[in-house]
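Sequence in, structure out. Go.
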Amino acid sequence: MNNEGLVQTRQIIHAINVPSRITGPNCDNSWYLTISRRDLDKFKNEIGFEYPKKEKIVKKK
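Output:
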């Protein structure tokens, strides 16, 4: 994941009050955008998930 794209994404989701953080660079030089479990419902309600597998994981929470 490229850091510049993640920074832009983070700014967008922060605009709707969903906190997140960027981790990296990791051992494979990748970067990740993470959202805490307590903020997943807010993310789901404001943005949602495109992939059924991700939606299913959130419902198990």
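Check: DSSP finds three helices and two strands in the chain. The CA atoms of residues 38 and 61 lie 10 Å apart.
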